[in-house]
Amino acid sequence: MPMPPVDLSGEANWTEFDAPSLVGASLRFVSGEPEGDRYRVRYYRNADGALRARIWFGPETEGPPGHAHGGSMAAVMDEVLGLAAWAAGYPIVVGNLNVDFRNLLPLQQVVTVESEILSTSGRKVMVRGRICKGDTVYAEADCLCITIPEQAAAELAGKH
Ligand SMILES: CCCCC/C=C\C/C=C\C/C=C\C/C=C\CCCC(=O)SCCNC(=O)CCNC(=O)[C@H](O)C(C)(C)COP(=O)(O)OP(=O)(O)OC[C@H]1O[C@@H](n2cnc3c(N)ncnc32)[C@H](O)[C@@H]1OP(=O)(O)O
């Protein structure tokens, strides 16, 4: 039996962000089952245009009993921070992802992923993010994204 619906609504000044229209429908590992028992995700931009996500970690993301697997948090960081770079106009893949796990994340609650573009230099785009709820930070990450040629990005996207 699937879990009941969860409230993924954003804050008042956020606008919903349509990830598939930007990057295609390939992001199924994290975003592919909006009514499933793994993750449920909704993307937004905040008032400054930065990417935000509301994410529910379902029972299938379990690692330590009752809590999210570290890899499930890393997968979320990979997708959201990579997508944050795309949303800021950079066609990238993730070259390096460094995650600090700060607190055990209880399953079946909605948390927020915040992101910001820290810097760009040549092909490198540095993105930082955190998974949090209220004052509690569950994980923080630094993500080095590397731009790829527009042509390569278009070809990859065309394969989906
Ligand atoms: C999910 C599919 C993604 C495909 C994207 C393509 C387009 C399709 C359309 C939509 C995309 C969809 C969604 C986007 C949103 C999120 C998706 C999640 C993100 C991912 O999940 S994506 C999968 C995981 N990702 C990989 O599977 C990458 C495999 N890998 C490579 O494809 C190469 O490895 C690459 C391209 C990274 C670099 O290769 P390269 O030959 O082009 O460039 P090079 O090595 O010369 O590096 C240039 C400068 O970056 C520095 N540099 C590079 N890597 C570094 C590292 N790790 N640490 C420190 N510095 C590094 C160098 O030191 C040099 O720096 P400097 O210029 O200063 O010397």
Automatic annotation (TrEMBL):
<keyword id="KW-0966">Cell projection</keyword>
<dbReference type="InterPro" id="IPR006683">
    <property type="entry name" value="Thioestr_dom"/>
</dbReference>
<dbReference type="GO" id="GO:0006631">
    <property type="term" value="P:fatty acid metabolic process"/>
</dbReference>
<keyword id="KW-0053">Apoptosis</keyword>
<dbReference type="GO" id="GO:0005737">
    <property type="term" value="C:cytoplasm"/>
</dbReference>
<feature type="domain" description="Thioesterase">
    <location>
        <begin position="66"/>
        <end position="137"/>
    </location>
</feature>
<dbReference type="Pfam" id="PF03061">
    <property type="entry name" value="4HBT"/>
</dbReference>
<dbReference type="InterPro" id="IPR029069">
    <property type="entry name" value="HotDog_dom_sf"/>
</dbReference>
<dbReference type="GO" id="GO:0016020">
    <property type="term" value="C:membrane"/>
</dbReference>
<keyword id="KW-0809">Transit peptide</keyword>
<keyword id="KW-0963">Cytoplasm</keyword>
<dbReference type="InterPro" id="IPR052365">
    <property type="entry name" value="THEM4/THEM5_acyl-CoA_thioest"/>
</dbReference>
<keyword id="KW-1003">Cell membrane</keyword>
<protein>
    <recommendedName>
        <fullName>Acyl-coenzyme A thioesterase THEM4</fullName>
        <ecNumber>3.1.2.2</ecNumber>
    </recommendedName>
</protein>
<keyword id="KW-0276">Fatty acid metabolism</keyword>
<keyword id="KW-0378">Hydrolase</keyword>
<comment type="similarity">
    <text>Belongs to the THEM4/THEM5 thioesterase family.</text>
</comment>
<keyword id="KW-0443">Lipid metabolism</keyword>
<keyword id="KW-0472">Membrane</keyword>
<dbReference type="GO" id="GO:0016790">
    <property type="term" value="F:thiolester hydrolase activity"/>
</dbReference>
